[in-house]
Amino acid sequence: MTQFVPTGLRVSAALAWRFLFVIAALYVLVWLAGYFSHIMVPLAIALLLAALMAPGVDRLVQLRVPRGLAALIVMVAGLAVVGGLITFVIITFSQGLPKLQQQVSDSLEQIRDWLVQGPLHLRQEQIQGFIDDTIDAIQDNQSALTEGAITTATTIGEILTGFVLTVFILIFFLYDGAGIWRFITRGVPSRVRERVDVAGRRGFAALVSYVRATAAVALVDAVGIGIGLAIVGVPLVVPLAALVFLAAFVPIIGAVLAGTVAVLVALVANGFVPALIVLAIVVGVMQLESHVLQPWLLGRAVRLHPLAVVLAIAAGLVAAGIAGALLSVPLLAVLNAGIKSLVNERGTDPDEVDVLHEQESEAPETDAKPDDTKATWERP
């Protein structure tokens, strides 16, 4: 009976069931990643940090520093910088909090006067009634708020556990990343092992380029918003700029949250019009990031079309929230570089691929001869 089925229908049916199997396999992989998210997220973050810190370890090794000591120095220095920024932001905010509290109190008094004497002409009793209703609502939902506080405490515990796991994994990545990769490739069939090895190294090279470009984007965001805040005269400029820098490592969402904090500080400290100006500055920097910096710098670094970068961020945000937005583009970059290498690259010795210093754009776009790409994983 098969001969009576039109060719087009047979081809469509064959493609359809194969497509369904691929979608089912991807769904299972995504479900497993979500189920083991407490392990997968620290592992992915440790890999990103390793891509950022590994060139520094390699440079110290070239200066005759033992690899274990070099990994320890770079990791401690990197964590000290991040921890120092976070500590600086917290301390500076704490020191400026009393002044902000006084400014918030003054602003609330101004709002109260405007509500009474302004065009709304509200009575003092109406305002006090609204305040009393708000307090009653909070008291009525005290159990829900308590449960939320418990959930927050649990979340903090999970974050601390994830941080310890991330540091533990990062130590091994920096100390013996090449050895870990060689161990993984032993499970690949020998006839394709070298091609898979080269593809994996190309993917990590793209990841190194990605984290460098992301750091550049975060720096531009912090400098742009910081200059705007200084011009407007908003207090706490430096810690707000540092907060923007840290948050910008989460594409789009991080800049939005940090910018919202800056606008709120400007509102309570400087008033409504300066807050609008700060909002315009934040929106302008976000537009620059979304439409120019993210697609141009990241797109060039990881050899992706700007539309692919934007769609990857959006898809990651929908699928897994902030973690998905943070990890979607580097995952796409690694897959893009690895698949490109598998399809186009032939005859390259895995030990001659420089994953730390070679730009991803230097990878061959067509079939490569054995001597076309000469470099090393670890420079002598």
Structure description:
- This protein is mainly alpha-helical and 380 residues long.
- Helix content is 81%, strand content 0%.
- It contains ten helices and no strands.
Secondary-structure blueprint of this entry?
Blueprint: H1 7-35, H2 37-62, H3 67-117, H4 124-140, H5 142-185, H6 190-232, H7 237-247, H8 253-270, H9 272-302, H10 306-344
Which tags fit this structure?
mainly alpha; globular
The number of distinct helices, counting runs of at least 4 residues, comes to 10
Oligomer: single chain
The helicity comes to over 70%
Query: What Rg do the Cα atoms give?
Result: 26 Å
Low-pLDDT ranges: 366-380
Order of helices and strands: HHHHHHHHHH
Shape: globular
What percentage of amino acids are in beta strands? under 5%
Cα distance, first to last residue? 66 Å
Structural class category: mainly alpha
Average per-residue pLDDT, rounded, comes to 77
Let me know the largest β-sheet.
none
The count of β-strands is: 0
